[in-house]
Fold this sequence. Notes:
By secondary structure, the protein is of the alpha/beta class. The chain has a single domain, classed as TIM Barrel (Alpha-Beta Barrel), CATH 3.20.20. The chain has helices spanning 20-24, 29-32, 35-40, 66-77, 98-117, 134-146, 170-179, 201-222, 225-228, 242-257, 265-268; strands at residues 9-15, 79-85, 123-128, 152-155, 182-186, 233-237.
Amino acid sequence: MNTPTRPMMIDGDGHVFEDIPAIVARMPAEVLKTPIIGTQGPFPPLDNLHQALWQSPPQSFEDPGGVRGWSEFLDSANFVVAVLYPTIGLAYGRITDKDLAIYTCRAYNDWLADTYCKADSRFKGLALIPMQDPAAAVTELNRAVTELGMVGAMLPPTGLPMLLGQDYYWPVYEEANRLGCAIALHGGAHQNMGMDNQGVFAAVHALGHPFGLMLNFTDMLVNRVFERFENTRFGFMEGGLAWFLMIMERCSGSYGAFRPTDPPTHAVAT
């Protein structure tokens, strides 16, 4: 009698708890002279909305024990791969100093590769890339994929000056398209989406993740990002599924009713 084959299990959205001192130690000496880096670290807070009274089930939102704990979890759950995302680093889109964004992303990527990806081949890292400076983001994406062995990059749906479908960011997608890697959007910083006075964090969490994805997916869709960079594997994480069905229904009707009459030159050219 043949033994049933177990399905291949992949954790597509696993989170690490950043070791801030270890990340800071990978930053240039001149950056370490900045007092704020030494006291608070390079990442800004996710938002003010997480500062609320709430409880979570036991053992949720806890560090499993670093690399060893993560590896043991993969063993126990029969996962063959875990794609790793940051936790406090989800807020990196809120960094306004471009140079700090570049240094922070590079240091985080080096730390993740050294600490997790080199320790267990089942860990696949998604890089942070400084979208505050698209040219620097292209350079860091290439380095992360070709030198550090990462599978792509994570982009923040909030914090940046423009939605992610704008052509300002297209050089990043062009490089991802050339590399054939992943670009994954993941929320977590929920400010400036109409919920800044919501006092119950459960509501913020419920709406914040899909809201950020909806805004950026729609912007990328109508600006034809998915058509232009079809070799890039885009992902939209931790927002569930229902938002996607609603957006497709709404966009199908609205685009038919309000089709652009004077599309941008770059759209006409193709």
